[in-house]
Amino acid sequence: MDFLVNILLTIQVTMMFTINLVLAFLFYRFVKMNSESAQYIFEDMPSVTELVIKVFGSFYLLNNSFVPMDLVATTELTKIVYAFWIEQDAEMTIVDSSRKIDGSIDDCIVGCSAQNLSIHEDLAQVDYIFCDKTGTLT
Q: Pick from 129, 132, 134: which is nearest to 92 by CA?
């Protein structure tokens, strides 16, 4: 999932910069073509290169909403919440007789522990669970 999101974000950023470059180039052509006939507009104009850089920055600010950077943050936050819910699930517990508390003969109940944030993605791919004599889940 992360790999796919990274690819899509890379494509979107590349497209955004390409669009910004094209728009800045078109602005450069507009200034070159109309600077003589419309001197009242371009009267106090700085150099054309400086103006094009400023216009590129303006187009970047206008177009940066096309790249959903909050998508990555929301995805990570969702993974944290899912891992918390998995750890708090009362049905995801096992009774482990090898872990005794203070030498008592009662069995110890062990809950699920999420070791990474992509645990819910891994659990979604499980079709069958096998358990051998030692209690190892496969």
A: 129
